Amino acid sequence: MSEDGREQTGHEHVPSRQRRRFPGISSRAYEHPADRSALVALRKLSGFDTVFKALSGLLPERSLRLLFLSDSVRVSERQFSHLHDMLLDACYILDLEKVPPMYVTQDPQPNAMCIGLDEPIIVVTTGLVELLDEEEMRAVVGHEAGHALSGHSVYRTILLFLTTLALKVAWIPLGNLAVMAIVTALREWFRKSELSADRAGLLVGQDLRASMRGLMKIAGGNHLHEMNVDAFLEQAEEYESGGDLRDSVLKILNVLPRSHPFATIRAAELKKWAESRDYQRIMDGHYPRRSEDKDTSVSGSFRESAASYADDVKSSKDPLMKLVTDLAGGAGDLGGRVRRGFDGFRSPTPPNEGPQDSQPQDGE
Fold first, then answer.
1. Is the confidence at residue 126, as pLDDT, over 50?
2. Closest Cα partner for 151 from 271, 287, 48?
3. By C-alpha distance, which of 156, 182, 158, 180 is closest to 169?
4. Cβ-count burial of 359 within 10 angstroms (0-12 exposed, 13-18 middle, 19+ buried)?
5. Cβ neighbourhood burial of 58 (10 Å; 0-12, 13-18, 19+)
6. Among 61, 136, 144, 194, which one carries the catalytic annotation?
7. Cα 107 from Cα 264, distance rounded (Å)
């Protein structure tokens, strides 16, 4: 670094406190296996860029850019300068070649997104800016920078377009079914991409508790003194393991229309990754480089994705996933559990706890 603490690169700002930087890092380093396998396959497709550039003429990208330019505030050294510094920090740490434009738009709903086909743009709402403190916001900006580095903005833009298209062709039965099948698949993909971007946010902020607090505030609002990160994570454990097969089906139905995983699940997944060897290796400077992306094996990426889904099923405490594991393993007690009905698949009470309170729980 130079004497004034700035490395001689294309970026003119470095993090406000000492953080590790990841020169030349590939997005494969932090992407969820299911997200990574799809991205690797698409990047390998011959003519992929040409197709999407042609498609961009059909998408409302230009309209969106003009809309944000005309009716939002563009982040810069003169406007929302603290967000501008965070954005430069994030691009510096992840070594993005070009800093994407960033806008703040008036909306009380806390939200952020990265969209665009040719060039990604980042949009954050006033509700989010007012909700989060500096370190929490830094993780969000890193999250969106991770979307930009991975190229997720392309697929989010297409998802927005297809969702709109599905509404327009809803009166055509087969047409609507075909579009909705694609939308459902894209939503599953995008939910995994959100987990990837959460990891990128952690690499930028390098403060796990701040990332957790941000997710907790998005779920429960600006009442941090009334909330507790550990208790929030316990909710994710209860959601994952509680109930019976009926609850498992309801979980699937609840998540299908969503583009993002639930906040408690995101927090639990991020904590799990932060405690993994993969994260530690990145922090130690051992990670895949962008220069190696062209040599990545598509089949190898799909095998990693399949293995990840298999591990999730095996380690899951969800009753339906446990049933799948039992069927695969030929569980001897399966017939008895079926005869006992739904209660036969209810998660057992932990041995150190007594029977469940007979009083109804919240929300019942």
1. yes
2. 48
3. 180
4. exposed
5. exposed
6. 144
7. 23
Question: For the chain, how long is the longest CA-to-CA vector?
Answer: 74
pLDDT tens digits along 136-155: 999 999 999 999 998 877 76
First-residue to last-residue Cα distance in the chain: 59
Q: Which two tokens stand for residue 89?
A: 């920090």
**Tokens describing residue 31:** 């992407």
* Alpha-carbon gap, residue 6 to 325, rounded angstroms: 53
What are the two backbone dihedrals, phi and then psi, of residue 76, each rounded to the nearest 5 degrees? Answer: -160, -175
**Distance between CA atoms of residues 248 and 240, nearest Å:** 9
Nearest to 38, CA basis, from 296, 288, 295, 302: 302
Distance CA 241, CA 211 (A): 24
Is residue 162 helix, strand or coil? helix
How far is 40 from 300, CA to CA, in rounded Å? Answer: 10
Which residue bears the tokens 């993005």?
96
Yes or no: say if 30 and 147 are a contact pair by the CB < 8 Å rule.
Answer: no
Tokens of 326: 């039992």
What token pair was written down for 283? 């922090």
For 69-137, the three-class secondary structure string (H helix, E strand, C coil) is HHHCEECCCCCCHHHHHHHHHHHHHHCCCCCCCEEEECCCCCCEEEECCCCCEEEEEHHHHHHCCHHHH
304 has catalytic annotation: no
Confidence band for 67, pLDDT divided at 50, 70 and 90: confident
For 56, which DSSP code? T
> What distance lies between CA 172 and its chain's CA centroid?
32
Which ranges in the chain belong to alpha helices (H)?
A: 33-44, 48-55, 61-71, 81-94, 126-131, 134-150, 152-168, 173-205, 208-220, 229-241, 245-255, 263-274, 277-283, 298-315, 319-329, 334-339
30: DSSP letter = T
DSSP 234-246: HHHHHHHH-S-HH
Distance CA 63, CA 71 (A): 12
For residue 354, the model assigns a pLDDT of 47
* Backbone phi and psi for residue 85, each to the nearest 5 degrees, phi listed first: -60, -40
Distance of CA 227 to the CA centre of its chain: 23
